[in-house]
Amino acid sequence: MRRQIPAAAALAAALLATAAAAAPKPAVHKPAAAKPATDAPAAAPAPTGPFDARNPDYLIALLAGMQAQATVAERQDDTVSLKVVNPAYGFSAQFAGCDPHGRVCKALAFSGLSEQRTVTLAEINRFNQTTINCHAFMDNGGKPHAWYSTLVFESTTRADMITHIQAWQGCWATFGAFLKSPTDYLSAAP
């Protein structure tokens, strides 16, 4: 069952507007300088046919239209992991429950890592109590991560996927505001 949140699209759009200003500085590998067109590898062909949110190629193409470059970073068992870089920050996307060809996946998670170590595990736990679809955790090295996940279906449309991307961008912006000042964020949170 898909949970509907009132005004989610409006909220995502409002949060998206502040994403660049509030987003934490994630660990992003800077892309190498652009090579001349003659040396550049050929881009993967855009998928054809109706949009299929269960196929990572369609997310890669969708993100390219949003000025983000996504590439397959790893395929293992039933997962396909993507590395995504856009003008503001980098993040990962992971498809899970995929068939042996890395298609017909069942779930998708967006995640980002911040190099900031300004929060405690207790603050991360309190942050998780303030959000319904944006979650955080601290890795063994003390680095905070944020993530947003969703199920994907044959019926998931391109517009649905754009809404999920916007929700992820809003999550990342909210997480950035939290990391900027955990005390202020948590004192104002519901």
Structural class: alpha+beta
CATH topology: Yope Regulator, Chain: A
Main-sheet strand order equals 1-2-3-4-6-5
Radius of gyration, in angstroms, nearest whole number? 17 Å
Major sheet details: 6 strands, antiparallel
Q: How many domains make up the 3D coordinates? A: 1
> Terminal Cα separation, in Å?
26 Å
Topology pattern, helix = H, strand = E:
HHEEEEHEEHH
Separate helix tally: 5
Q: Which overall shape is indicated by the principal axes computed on the Cα atoms? A: elongated
Q: Given this structure, which CATH class is correct?
A: Alpha Beta
CATH-defined architecture:
2-Layer Sandwich
Please sum up the structure shown.
This protein is α+β, with helices and mostly antiparallel strands.
